[in-house]
Amino acid sequence: MAGNQLDNQGRGEASWNWPSIHPEGRKFGLIAVAIALFFLLILDWEIIGWPLLGVAAWVFAFFRDPERVVPQDDRYIVAPADGLVSLISKVAPPPEMQMADSAGNPGLPGEPVVRISIFMSVFDVHINRAPISGTVERVIYMPGKFVNADLDKASEENERQHIVIARGDGLKLGFTQIAGLVARRIVPFVKPGDMIAVGQRVGLIRFGSRVDVYLPAGTDPRVVLGQRTVAGETVLGEVGQQKLIEGIAL
């Protein structure tokens, strides 16, 4: 993954920049602007046009794609999404992740592991990133409902997309993009066979959603319930490390 190399010794260059808008969202923003200008300039309905212009600005902001500084350590599993850690539970990975694929590659083990659910509101960045480096082993789209993504049953009932990444050392990790009440479209940027780096952009979910991450066996979270994560930066866990971490909401 090309980028500006920075470290904790002060090397690299850092400056504030306006986040870019992902190409996937530019058409939606331009459509919103065109509608707002139609009401403002053609119909002269300012009471509708100005609010619509505000909506257009929000649409552009929704598809913002800021740069992230990704930890470069194979022990770390980084957050694939911005948002709120809404659920931490121990469950078996979805059946679609467990079964062997068409190439004969075995899936994830069937025993329960820690699942971290990150809820993305409509105000969060919705570009999702790879939690680890490796090869994309499978991308499985599952149609479904659009219940509140904050509910536990959303992982089994909603429109969703499973992604499994396999590392050269045999470690496999699965995560699921889940559509929510407003979201109606999961857009992948990767396909099976792609080699990806940790923190690389792998897809997005339009307009509110959730991402579930299934940590490898023997790995506990390094985040707590109610914590906010930053995609590509927040460390969710350290492979093979188990430790109780507590926090206090103030």
From TrEMBL:
Lineage, opening ranks: Bacteria, Pseudomonadati, Pseudomonadota, Alphaproteobacteria, Sphingomonadales
Keyword Transmembrane: yes
Cleavage (non-hydrolytic), annotated site positions: G208, S209
Domain of life: Bacteria
Name under which the protein is recorded: Phosphatidylserine decarboxylase proenzyme
Chief site of localization: membrane
Cofactor: record remark: Binds 1 pyruvoyl group covalently per subunit.
Membrane topology: Peripheral membrane protein
Cofactor: pyruvate
HAMAP family on file: PS_decarb_PSD_A
Subcellular location: Cell membrane
First-tier enzyme category under EC: lyase
One Gene Ontology biological process: phosphatidylethanolamine biosynthetic process
Family statement drawn from the similarity comment of this UniProt entry: Belongs to the phosphatidylserine decarboxylase family. PSD-A subfamily.
